[in-house]
Design a protein that fits this description.
The structure holds two protein chains of two kinds. By secondary structure, chain A is of the alpha/beta class. Chain A has helices at residues 27-30, 36-42, 64-82, 92-104, 119-131, 148-154, 171-183, 207-220, 243-247, 276-290, 295-307, 310-335, 361-372, 401-424; strands spanning 2-3, 50-51, 114-117, 137-142, 158-165, 168-169, 190-193, 223-227, 253-258, 270-273, 341-342, 350-354, 374-375, 377-378, 391-395. Chain A contains 14 helices and 15 strands. In chain A, strand 7, helix 8 and strand 8 (223-227) form a beta-alpha-beta unit. The chains are: A alpha/beta, B alpha+beta.
């Protein structure tokens, strides 16, 4: 509830004729249609609804005293500069630290080859706007990151989805698709992939496929955009080499990552590592959008990384997430029907569940919100072509184990109601 | 200008039309402020009664759509709290929101509405209603429109073109409400008539929604530029009169107050078929009521002022 301030002053933001702008919007602004599903999703923010829809990292576990100490240090040493504009590419010290973080993950870059961005989302947007003219082809996994969907729509990309399986993007199917396109004289501009703990797919690309992907992209001369926000958020298994590293500096990969998952999304700091000519274009693109990323956030991260071992914080998060993932997998086993399948992530924040094909998860969401007070992301949010209608993304990082168990139980009850109804309607005859 | 009042604008809530209601509510609030009223913005949540008691508004403008806000629930609470509110009273809301009841009222009043059958989810689960689908298809003919009984914004509505589509369409509709309507699909022009007033209600010029899809669905309703709203609709004087008379007959039959909107189809033979009546018409940037008002030479602010002026209790 909120009281209107200045109740007797007119509101300047709502024009007398709200439809007056309708015919003036640019094509890239009107490409994003109103959707019932997007409206339904907003209900998941209501406090009386259990939401497994978000993608929220846990920020409660960030130590308060560290938070205070770091800000004190920033205030003591960098007051003026953290209140000032900074270079578009980001503060040099931060770029050096980013290179160290990448190196720990086996990905090698030089500070000059890194551009600091306003979160990973801006990194994605910069990569797309730097390469994609309306109608240009982008290969993306199916499903792909739901947050990339409006970006790809805005820049009017023609997106071709390549199915995921437990080993990540199917390189066989990718190769077939590239052959088909080549036969029509077409070649994608970009291959956008999330190799580690896919959002929303919950799977990780195998080593063999990584090698094949890099080789195939090089052979066909297609740039790879490797989006790696979750790499360090691994609970089990061995880390696999990044596509960036496998490319070995051949210039075939643009690498994106972020501090959102290893530190906190509120910082809004991510980065791009890319070949110099690409990075120059992206730098100009960023200048046009926001001049530079928040210097205050950059200073906070620099001071934090100097004082603390970020790996310890991530280890703490990973322990929490592992417990939550286990709670979700156990609840799924218990509450979801036998015909349902779901991924078992070794890290990251999400499980991707697929239901019998007669269950439309957008419709299930309406039922789940109204009658069971629980929400998730319907699968079609992760596609640009209407696929994913019987799938859903479930987040485990943002809720306690108890809430996850209760939430999955409620979704299970909504699914059961639909399965029963289908039977009553004579389905499966 | 009338005396400034302390107006609580009720919006949002937990209905599936929450976002639509927030957009309507924002436009209503802006209009009320321009008119000089004091606006208290209230997102209907579990603290609603306490909030209204604490804020003590002179009057409530109900800008909610769908369950809770448009079905008589919020109106009943306002009756209990004795705060006058805009739009229809408890019973008219309940009668309008449920398409099954509204259609029965239209039929009793001699107003044409497409033939339909209605069921609860239980009828399929417990009484084998699915076995009667072939009779329904025979009696109504295909295509059929399958609709949730109580939802707005065309949520959950699909057109079944052949028998095999019907179970799927029922699954969809039953996701949005536990009662559904199977209705003969009348092909024709989509016409909406907004009505203003209580004692002497007045029909505003009809608006025609022209769109590319098979019916006026959610996307077509709320994506700017996807639907062309023609106001006034090109109907010719006789048909325009008949459309207005029909809308007023619906409004009076259901017992609406303040404002409302009657949605109908005009078929190829210029016959009118009433689909539904909305006790709280959408007031978003792409909604029909503001367009109708403009065609009548009324500004959005004037409409809001009139609706506010007729706020009352009872009915």
């Amino acid at each position: 509830m909120n009281d209107a301030k200045g109740a007797f002053t007119a509101d300047r933001t709502v024009p007398r004729d709200p439809s007056r702008f309708e015919d003036r919007f640019a094509a890239r602004a009107t490409g994003i249609k109103s959707s019932a599903m997007r409206d339904l999703m907003s209900l998941s923010e209501r406090p009386d609804i259990i939401s497994l829809a978000g993608g929220f990292p846990d920020t409660d576990s960030f130590p308060a005293e560290v938070f205070a100490d770091v800000w004190h240090a920033v205030a003591d040493r960098h007051k003026a500069s953290s209140l000032q504009y900074g270079p578009t590419e980001g503060l040099l010290e931060l770029r050096e630290l980013i290179c160290r973080i990448m190196a720990e993950d086996g990905a090698h870059a030089q500070p000059d080859g890194v551009l600091v961005t306003a979160g990973g989302q801006q990194a994605i947007a910069l990569a797309i706007r730097t390469f994609i003219d309306p109608g240009d082809i982008v290969i993306a996994e199916g499903p792909t990151y739901p947050g990339a969907v409006p970006t790809l729509t805005t820049y009017q990309a023609r997106v071709i989805h390549i199915p995921l399986d437990p080993d990540g993007m199917s390189i066989d199917l990718l190769e077939e698709q590239l052959d088909r396109l080549a036969a029509q004289g077409q070649r994608p501009k970009l291959i956008y992939t999330i190799p580690n703990f896919h959002n929303p797919g919950g799977v990780t690309m195998s080593r063999g496929r990584r090698e094949r992907l890099v080789a195939l992209a090089a052979e066909r001369d297609i740039l790879i955009v490797e989006d790696n926000p979750y790499g360090p958020v691994r609970f089990e298994g061995e880390a696999l080499p990044s596509l960036w590293e496998l490319d070995g500096g051949a210039g075939g990969v643009i690498y994106l990552s972020t501090f959102s998952k290893i530190l906190a999304p509120g910082m809004r700091i991510g980065w791009v590592a890319a070949p110099a000519p690409i990075l120059r274009k992206m730098n100009l693109g960023k200048q046009a959008i926001d001049l530079c990323s928040s210097t205050m956030s950059q200073r906070f991260i620099i001071e934090y990384l100097r004082r603390c071992d970020w790996r310890e914080h991530v280890a703490r998060l990973n322990t929490i997430y592992r417990g939550r993932r286990d709670a979700m997998l156990a609840a799924l086993e218990h509450h979801f029907p036998a015909e349902a399948t779901w991924t078992r992530p070794d890290g990251g924040l999400f499980v991707w569940a697929t239901l019998p094909d007669y269950i439309h998860t957008g419709e299930l969401l309406a039922r789940a919100i109204e009658r069971h007070q629980v929400a998730f992301v319907p699968g079609e949010a992760a596609f640009l072509d209407g696929q994913g209608q019987n799938s859903m993304r479930l987040n485990y990082s943002g809720a306690s184990e108890e809430v996850i168990t209760e939430g999955i139980g409620r979704i299970g009850a909504a699914i059961e109601a639909m399965v029963d109804l289908r039977r009553a309607l004579g389905g499966g005859q | 200008m009338t005396t400034p009042q302390r107006v609580a604008v009720l919006k949002g809530g937990r209905s599936l039309e929450r976002e639509v209601s927030l957009r309507s509510g924002a436009n209503v609030e802006a209009a009320l402020r321009r008119l000089g009223h004091e606006v208290i913005s209230v997102d209907a949540d579990p603290k609603l009664v306490r909030t209204l008691r604490a804020k003590r508004p002179d009057v409530v403008f109900v800008a909610m759509h769908g369950k809770g806000g448009e079905d008589g629930t919020v109106q009943e609470l306002l009756e209990i709290l004795s705060i006058p509110y805009t739009g229809s009273g408890v019973h008219a809301c309940a009668r309008s929101m449920d398409k099954v009841i509204a259609k029965a009222i239209f039929a009793n009043a001699g107003i044409p509405t497409p033939p339909a059958f209605a069921f609860g989810e239980d009828a399929f689960r417990e009484l084998g209603a699915a076995d009667a689908l072939s009779e329904i298809e025979e009696r109504l003919g295909l295509p059929l429109v399958v609709k949730p009984a109580k939802q707005g914004s065309a949520l959950g509505i699909t057109v079944a073109r052949e028998p095999n589509d019907v179970p799927r369409a029922l699954m969809t509709a039953l996701s949005f409400d536990d009662h559904v309507l199977l209705e003969r699909f009348v092909v024709g022009r989509e016409i909406a008539v907004s009505v203003l007033g209580t004692e002497h209600p007045e029909a505003l010029p009809a608006v025609e929604a022209v769109f590319a899809g098979e019916f006026y669905d959610f996307e077509a309703r709320y994506t700017p530029g996807m639907t062309e709203l023609v106001a006034p609709a090109h109907l010719g004087p006789e048909l325009a009169d008949e459309v207005a008379r029909t809308a007023l007959a619906c409004y009076e039959a259901v017992g609406c107050r303040g404002f409302g909107r009657v949605d109908m189809i005009i078929d190829a033979e210029d016959r009118i078929w009433v689909l539904e009546i909305n006790p709280i018409p959408g007031m978003t940037d792409t909604s029909l009521l503001p367009k109708a008002a403009a065609a009548a030479g009324l500004s959005f602010d004037e409409v809001i002022e009139r609706v506010l002026g007729e706020a009352a209790l009872g009915g």
